[in-house]
Amino acid sequence: MLTTRVTVTVHASDPLSRAGLISHLRHQPTIDFVPEHDDGVRGDPAVAVMLADRIDEPTTAELRRLLRGRDQRVVLVARELREPDLLSVVEYGVRAIIWRHQATEQRLLNAVHSAARGEGELPPDLVSRLLNQVGRLQRATAAGTGTGGAVPLFGMAPREVDVLRLLAEGLDTRQISEKLAYSERTVKNILHSLMTRLQLTNRAHAVAYALREGYI
């Protein structure tokens, strides 16, 4: 039986969807709601429930806002998630994911309490997809270890940041290799490994990602 009280805020771009989520949880005796724009007035809520049809730029910006510098857990109620999106939301720190069509009162309540305890919760089909994607990324990471240095599964290694910073300054492969005392092949391998691991389409996309995420 769930007895611990949890403070919750609900976020959705559509007011009707937000009202629907609130109605699912409002009568639960262990849930205390905090208004969406009351952040900091009564302390940060323990759990943020966020509804998103898809993971786009506004959604990722909101996730970063919710998780930046806070001891707050996020439950994501999603209509669809592509595999790169799944890795992104896990990297951002989302604790639990529920498919929108499966978001019953009991599932939402269980997910909120799991997140509040610091536990994770995923639908079985997402667990399988996540494991498959992580396996592919680990193989891509292993393939890139010949460039030297540890390569993280998520995020960027310092040497990757160094390469992208110079790329953002307009240097080409030869100039980057001279600056960093790498061979041109090593520079190319670093970029290829990075773009494969993070599902980035080209060098410009990699630079844009690094800028957006605050690496450079």
UniProtKB/TrEMBL annotation:
One of its GO terms (molecular function) is DNA binding. SMART domains: HTH_LUXR. PROSITE patterns: HTH_LUXR_1, HTH_LUXR_2. Gene3D superfamilies: 3.40.50.2300. It comes from the Bacteria. Residues 149-214 form the HTH luxR-type domain. Keywords: DNA-binding, Transcription, Transcription regulation. This is DNA-binding NarL/FixJ family response regulator.
